[in-house]
Design goal:
The structure is a homodimer of 253-residue chains.
Chain A lengths: L1 E5 L8 H14 L4 E5 L5 H5 L11 H5 L5 H4 L1 E4 L2 E4 L8 H4 L9 H6 L8 E5 L6 H9 L2 E7 L2 H5 L1 H14 L5 E8 L6 H14 L12 H5 L7 H4 L4 H18 L1
Parallel strand pairs in A: 1-5, 1-6, 2-4, 2-5, 6-7
Antiparallel strand pairs in A: 3-4
Helix pairs in contact in A: 1-13
Bound molecules: adenosine-5'-triphosphate (2 copies) and magnesium ion (MG) (2 copies).
Chain lengths: 253, 253
């Protein structure tokens, strides 16, 4: 089982879009996938057509140890299950700040899984607070979606530093799985330059496959669908299938 | 003096881009402007060419009441001053959580301004935590940059609710100044549909001027420049000049 945290404290770089469509792509290939929405905005939950504001139980109830895991998991499609979120989760940082071992709450909850899926993907909020730290202690790999623009490059070094601190203190297993370039437009010099810079710093950690800028990816959430359900022959669907194939290839190395 | 907080907990919608270029546009019109970077990512600071990681004092020292305001302010251009940020600010949430009246630290610091500028613009992180609350208690208006895509629309209702809670409990003066549509591409149906939806809900709170998607706006930060310094005749520069004109017109009503 691979548990992957999708992180980047820079906002709007494609964390949620990548978590959903990587998950859906792996499910299409026959892998069992569990998606976890760890963002109080509950964008992954809404984007998959789940009414976050009407749900009785969410990931917050799991972290507070009030509800067993099997009651929180939602079947979303074949091979694709979800642990949804809601706005209540924004209270977690304060409510859990005095709990001993508060960084391990998610990891412990996932240990109660009756049946291990092939992949667990965790969508994180755009910050490096308690929720993201819970994802990093539960995960064995980190994927960093990066929008190929200057501001998105800015925070990479502090992001890598945070991962290293978590590796040293909370989770020795944690490794940088890969960096995925998102919203890439080959016509923009800026995008080509930033991708080159990332390749210089991070070498083959950068996925060969880039996710092109594709309006279908921005439209699909409004229909509560994955890219494969919404427009299976779009560039977005093609790129995410290619990233999944590269991901499985990397896992087998 | 108008103090405006640029907020939206949705990431990557153009908060920083809007704060910088609205500020620079108002300065170009002859108004005195103070920009405040309240994001630990320090994107506004970096995007204006200031080396956040090398600065001795930042907004964090101001909030901790360790440094007087006049020592933290940096002159960036004519009529344009900045209170920079740095990564240290990410410690504020924990460090200040037990300080009585922690929500009013920024407001109190700004009361020590020797000379009041015409406008103060505060760039906020993509969350509704203590830093954003400090901005909302110091401000008399809120501007909400919105990327015209589905996910960006999702969080609007919870954002408005947060503003209302702050109005009731911490700052009776706070008003919704306006909503600014960003990264708008007239060719995309999705963008047109979302703008229509916002106009339905919020009426003339939505600025008539939209900020078009324009690669110069994404390139300027890499050069440490405002859009007016980088490409004064680009669509980005034109749109921000138009937003400034509309802003001044609204202020005079
Ligand atoms: N490759 C792409 N092409 C076009 N639009 C995209 C692409 N990837 C993401 N988007 C759109 O860009 C916006 C930001 O993406 P997304 O919400 O996935 O980012 P995020 O990093 O999860 O944001 P946050 O920091 O708020 O959690 C969304 O409106 C999404 O639909
Ligand atoms: N109108 C525009 N046209 C093209 N690119 C834009 C535009 N507005 C913003 N951008 C780019 O989009 C990205 C996100 O913008 P920005 O960083 O200003 O958003 P933000 O809301 O401040 O993000 P965060 O939530 O991380 O603070 C940046 O790379 C920026 O350069
Ligand atoms: Mg997200
Ligand atoms: Mg910003």
């Amino acid at each position: 089982m691979k548990t992957i945290a999708l992180i980047n404290q820079k906002g709007g770089v494609g964390k949620t879009t990548t978590t959903i469509n990587l998950g859906a792509g792996l499910a299409e290939l026959g892998h069992e996938v569990l998606l976890i929405d760890l963002d109080p905005q509950a964008h992954l939950t809404y984007a998959l057509g789940l009414p976050a504001h009407e749900l009785d139980v969410t990931v917050y109830d799991l972290l507070k140890e009030e509800t067993p895991l099997k009651e929180v998991i939602v079947e979303r499609a074949e091979n694709l299950r979800v642990i949804p979120s809601s706005l209540n989760l924004s209270g977690a940082e304060m409510a859990l700040s005095s709990v001993a071992g508060r960084e391990f709450l998610l990891k412990e909850a996932l240990e109660t899984l009756a049946h291990e899926p092939g992949y667990i993907l965790i969508d994180c909020p755009p910050s490096l607070g308690l929720l993201t730290i819970n994802a990093l202690t539960a995960a064995n790999e980190v994927y960093i979606p990066v929008q190929t623009e200057f501001l998105a490059l800015q925070g990479m070094s502090s992001l890598i530093q945070t991962v290293e601190v978590i590796q040293k203190r909370l989770n020795r297993e944690l490794a940088l799985g890969g960096i995925i370039a998102t919203r890439y437009d080959n016509r923009k010099t800026l995008n080509r330059e930033v991708v080159e810079k990332i390749r210089e710093y991070f070498g083959d950690k950068l996925f060969r496959t880039v996710i092109r800028d594709n309006v279908s990816l921005a439209e699909a959430p409004g229909h509560g669908q994955t890219i494969f359900e919404y427009r299976a022959r779009s560039n977005g669907a093609k790129d995410f299938r290619a990233v999944c194939a590269e991901m499985v290839e990397r896992a087998e190395k």
